[in-house]
């Protein structure tokens, strides 16, 4: 791996109770972000007792001020709907104002619709529907969507991306709890073992792996997974994973969602 770089840690207002913090830079609609998500899920399952994480949205976009005015127009009824490539990122930041878990649920549902092509996720109306699907406070979400706070939060992510000179997404920057120490930036997507090795080195080799969950436990934690997710998590082939998933579909535990490009499995 030769695409790594040391960086200074940005000032954070959150208190870190775990020794490692990950800054995960993604474009939410990039297919590579889905591949990164697969790796992150396994890392969370086995090692999340050592790290916290935050997503940093890193799609370079312009004219946020004019977009905010147009979004407010949607809410007042002067426009029925608009589409814009910035809208998904602003929607994710609006969801984040209801909490980190709300942001994570919203991002995953948005990516699900993008992968299955069941909604145009650059559409304002579709993004409101996604908030309803995951039971956010929709009135609050709509107000936040057109607010300066959501736009500023997105602009802050873009600022962090530039400040850390992240030129490729997805990327991850690893920091330890000592603010004086430099972080390690890993640009692009690598095998799972690379990220585990980084954790080992940052913890001086003193880490233990948590046991893998059962299938039922896995789908309680992550309600929707791809076949590849399951294969990677259990270190089996996609064919073996699909056989196990089909068994649970026949048992009415899972439902299958698919198109020509991807298959998702969702907890019933």
Describe this structure in words.
The protein is α+β, with helices and mostly antiparallel strands. The chain has eleven helices and eight strands. Helix 1 links the parallel strand 2 and strand 3. The longest helix is centred in the first third of the chain and has 17 residues. The chain is globular. About 2% of the residues have low confidence. It is found in: Cytoplasm. Adapter protein required for efficient degradation of Spx by ClpXP under non-stress conditions. Interaction with Spx stabilizes Spx and exposes the C-terminus of Spx for recognition and proteolysis by ClpXP. This is ClpXP adapter protein SpxH.
| CATH H-level superfamily of the largest domain | Glutaredoxin
Task: Determine the N-to-C terminus distance.
Answer: 40 Å
How many helix segments? Answer: 11
In total, how many beta strands?
8
Number of domains: 3
Q: In CATH terms, what is the fold-level topology of the largest domain?
A: Glutaredoxin
